[in-house]
Description:
CATH architecture of the domain at 420-515: 2-Layer Sandwich
Radius of gyration: 23 Å
Distance between the termini: 50 Å
Largest sheet: 9 strands, mixed
CATH class of the domain at 420-515: Alpha Beta
Shape: globular
Number of helices: 17
Number of strands: 25
Strand content: 25-35%
Strand order of the largest sheet: 2-1-10-9-11-12-13-14-15
CATH superfamily of the domain at 420-515: ANL, C-terminal domain
Amino acid sequence: MQPELRSEWAERAAVGLETDDPVIYRAMATPQRQAVYEVATGRSATYAALNGAVGRAAKRLAEIVGQQPAAQRIAFLGRNSIEQLVVCLACQRAGFVFVPLNWRLGAAELAQILEDCQPSVLLHDEEFVAVVAEMADIPPKTIAIDGEQGWAAMVASGPEAEPVVLDADAPCIMLYTSGTTGTPKGVIITRGNAFASAINFSLVGEVTSRSVSLCDLPFFHTIGLVAIGRTTLMMGGRLIISDRFLPERTLSVLGDPALGVTHYFAVPQMAAALRNSPAWDPTALKALQAIFIGGAPLSPALIETFLKDGIPLVNGYGMSEAGTTIHMPLDRDAVARHPGSVGYPAPLLAVRLVGEDGQDVRDGEVGEIWVKGPSVTPGYWNKPAETARAFVGSWYRTGDLGRRAEGGVIHVPDRLKDMYISGGENVFPAEIEAVIGAHPKVQDVAVIGLPDAKWGECGVAFVVARADAPSTEEIFAHCAERLASYKRPSRIVFLDQIPRTASGKAQKHILRQTHAPQ
């Protein structure tokens, strides 16, 4: 890693991190305590068993990778499972970098990511065999999880690897997030970043050894993998792993007294789906301390609905580049007093709100959110120019806008970038515009996100057609072949021209004003 990208956390680390492995200590201190439980299969593992599985997986990965340069990438395409968690922890123990892939993407989109990160091996669930086959020979080696010759069988027994001692700035995870140009960016997460992120969420979320966390959110997101998964294990709690969000099943798990779930994280659309489910019964959720919300704007009306049922929706703000950044406390009165606020800066992070002049704005004024601390990424994989643009000295520019109210709570009124969030997934219009603009019958296109009752926001594509105008169905079909479902626009609007500035930039504020739902 380039010296100028080393984090301040790494600069303070005089020796290698030997104590940041989330399960080694727990395997010694509480070996027979249940560490993980799978909702879909009923499988479970104690901390001793989980630690052994991680050690065997680390040994096998080292054998597969061989004498290649350090920090080899190991990609994983699959839903949440014990196996995926084990591979993630094994990568850190062996000195490799875990790259969880978004299984909602199509083969072409996944191939672009694999071309960029060049993994030594791709592990995948049986569900995604066809997708992997479409990607031809991009990963040099692919291994299915199931089957007699599969990964699960390969690591069922055998020797365990000793942990590799590396500095805090050694990368251990890489999470891909779309860039404003439409090109995916690999966010580098170092051992120090992951450790500090888990500390931050353990403090703001009050996670302890008695906590039981249900994880419906996918492990290819920092929320699922780090904030929920890693934090719970590091603190010695119990991690309930769910392979997908199904409202009725989730409510059944949350209300199961034998499991005693205390912590649950969701995007606003998931929380609304739970509240609107016929199975909703707040009296069954007595063990639940709070439902943590992130990933999209949270309406005060939804907060009030849950508060009336005695369950606080605790809002927060974070990102792959910094983990848990700003968060409301687990205090129902605080939630009620500051509806819609994302809370206070996490303990190990400094937060600034900066105006266009580069100076901090006053309370009540809007500025760009800048963050600094040990959980902040050193940069993007293979993208030095984008890394340089994202930092001012040691401060990371989030591109989001914030306003600090009296008492220090922060609100996020808007985004500086064009990104919108649909169903908890980040969507960048530039990527969709590039796809639609490639259609031979399209002359010009601009995409924005507009409010949607079900998904929070959905894309609307404004299209200027050529003489042989395409139909709406043609554009939808064109997108379906090239984009994941959550990225596809929900509506096509044909215009004579798209309003643009003299420099050629689309005036998207005009499109929003003209076409926003009334």
